[in-house]
Every structure is written in structure tokens, then in C-alpha cells.
Design goal:
There is one protein chain. By secondary structure, the chain is an alpha+beta fold. Helix content is about 20%, strand content about 40%. The chain is built from 6 helices and 15 strands. The strands form 3 sheets. It has a 5-stranded mixed beta barrel with strand order 1-2-3-5-4. Strands 8-7-6-9-10 form a 5-stranded antiparallel beta sheet. It has a 5-stranded mixed β-barrel with strand order 11-12-13-15-14.
Length: about 260
């Protein structure tokens, strides 16, 4: 009859399930396979399509090192646990994204709607509307001019915050504006409505101008705050001008300014 210790050990052992993330030590490698020691679960294998999808990363990992992998088949015909390194890496990256406040995104492309990016190898999209005031396309004209303005960001890294994350669909929408607001919260504590600031005009649009002031803060001067007779901001301002403006609103990291001091 089995003693109590043996019964407890059996109760503690839970068979692996498809989709579970496990950690294992690399014990051997073949021409197109990696073998992992999964302890009580036996030996895991990353091979075939799963090996070739991650071969550039796997070739840098040495025997004896531990990695995480996702279970595809708990017990195949050869007695191995079939695993995917790429899927585990993606899922863990998704989980990390949920926790991070501000992250860096590498811009790899652009279209008329925004920027195509990658975060930890996962595709993400940054809509034009979610660009910071500093990087928002300040061009007059059609979408082709907007696209040309966006293409200058390809190859660069931008600090962003996750706006929405759909793990099942693999879709991540990111926002530079939210990241900027997060960073600006502390800096903006130094200012209040009614303060007069001095800064540099960094951009002009049909509807107003952008003014950089303080420690990398930026606010917008709407055309209605430039004077009753002003029909176009370029009539009275040009990029690089140093001007004084009054803070008329601070909301969600955004600063509204007025030339009517």
C-alpha cells in the first residue's frame, strides 16, 4: 500500500497542458532541434517549424542555460514534450507590456494613418492622432505630405505607452502622446493656470502654433488665442521665434497657451 508521502507526491504532480509556459534547461542541440530538461515532465524538444522560426535567437543560447517555451504537445509519439520558443517569447512579452508604463518602440514603417513599430519583436501601430505634440505632422495639405512627414521616423525609437492590447489577435496600439503625458505630470506640477512662460515656436499649423518651454514641455497656442485679426498663425509667428505666452489650461498632460497676456 502506498504511504502518505507517495500519495502527496502524486497529488502535487499535474500533467502539462497545451498552451502552458514551462521553463527548461538546454541539454543538447541537433542540426534542427533543441532539447530541454523539463525536470519531472521529462524532455522537451523544439524542432521543425518552431526551431527555424527562432533559430537566430536559439543559436546564441548555450547548453546549460534556461529558457521558457510554450507547450504544443505534452507527449508526442517519441515521448517528447513538443515546445515553441517563439510563442512563449511573444506571450511573455505581452505580459510584460501590461506592466510597463513607458516603453521604447522601434519604428519600422509608415502609412497615411500612422507608424508601424516593433516592441520586443511584436508588431505595433502608432496612429497619427497618438503622436506627441512635438512629432505630430505639422504640414498643410493632403495625406501624401503627412506620409512624407511620418517617414522621417523610420529607424528611430520613440517612447510610448500601450493604448490597447489584444493578445489573441496579436494587435498592439501604442501612444506617444500618453507616454509624454506620463512624463509631463511631474514637470507640470511646477506650473499653474495664469503663469506666463517663455519658449520657442516649434511648429505651425492652420489652427495654431506649438511652443516648447521649460524642461522639454510643449503647449499649443490656438489661433483664437493669437488675436481677433489673425487668420493664419504664420502671419505673426515663424518657427524658431521666442515668445511669451500665458497658460490657460492644463489637462491630461496637455497645455493650452494664449498670446493674450
Amino acid at each position: 500500500m502506498e504511504n502518505m508521502k507517495e500519495l502527496l507526491k502524486k497529488e502535487e504532480f499535474k500533467p502539462l497542458k497545451v498552451g502552458e509556459i514551462v521553463e527548461g534547461k538546454i541539454i543538447a542541440r541537433g542540426k534542427s532541434a533543441i532539447y530541454l530538461d523539463l525536470g519531472k515532465y521529462g524532455t522537451g524538444i523544439i524542432y521543425g517549424k518552431e526551431f527555424f522560426e527562432a533559430k537566430d535567437i536559439l543559436k546564441e543560447i548555450k547548453i546549460g542555460e534556461n529558457i521558457f517555451a510554450k507547450v504544443l504537445e505534452p507527449d508526442n509519439e517519441e515521448g517528447f514534450v513538443e515546445l515553441s520558443f517563439a510563442l512563449a517569447k511573444k506571450e511573455l512579452a505581452f505580459e510584460k507590456l501590461k506592466e510597463e508604463k513607458i516603453i521604447k518602440a522601434k519604428i519600422i514603417g509608415a502609412n497615411k494613418g500612422g507608424l508601424l513599430a516593433q516592441i520586443s519583436g511584436i508588431p505595433a501601430f502608432l496612429p497619427v492622432s497618438q503622436l506627441s505634440f512635438k512629432n505630430y505632422p505639422r504640414v498643410k495639405g493632403d495625406s501624401e505630405k503627412i506620409l512624407k512627414s511620418l517617414q522621417k521616423f523610420i529607424g528611430k525609437e520613440l517612447e510610448v505607452k500601450v493604448l490597447s492590447l489584444n493578445k489573441e489577435g496579436g494587435q498592439i496600439i501604442i501612444s506617444e502622446r500618453l507616454a509624454e503625458a506620463e512624463k509631463s505630470k511631474e514637470l507640470l506640477k511646477k506650473y499653474k493656470i495664469g503663469d506666463v512662460v517663455e519658449g520657442e515656436v516649434t511648429g505651425l499649423t492652420d489652427f495654431g502654433a506649438f511652443l516648447r518651454f521649460g524642461e522639454c514641455l510643449e503647449g499649443m497656442i490656438h489661433i483664437s488665442e493669437m488675436g481677433e485679426k489673425v487668420k493664419d498663425p504664420s502671419e505673426i509667428l515663424k518657427i524658431g521665434d521666442k515668445v511669451k505666452a500665458k497658460i490657460i489650461d492644463i489637462s491630461q498632460g496637455r497645455v493650452s497657451l494664449s498670446l493674450k497676456i
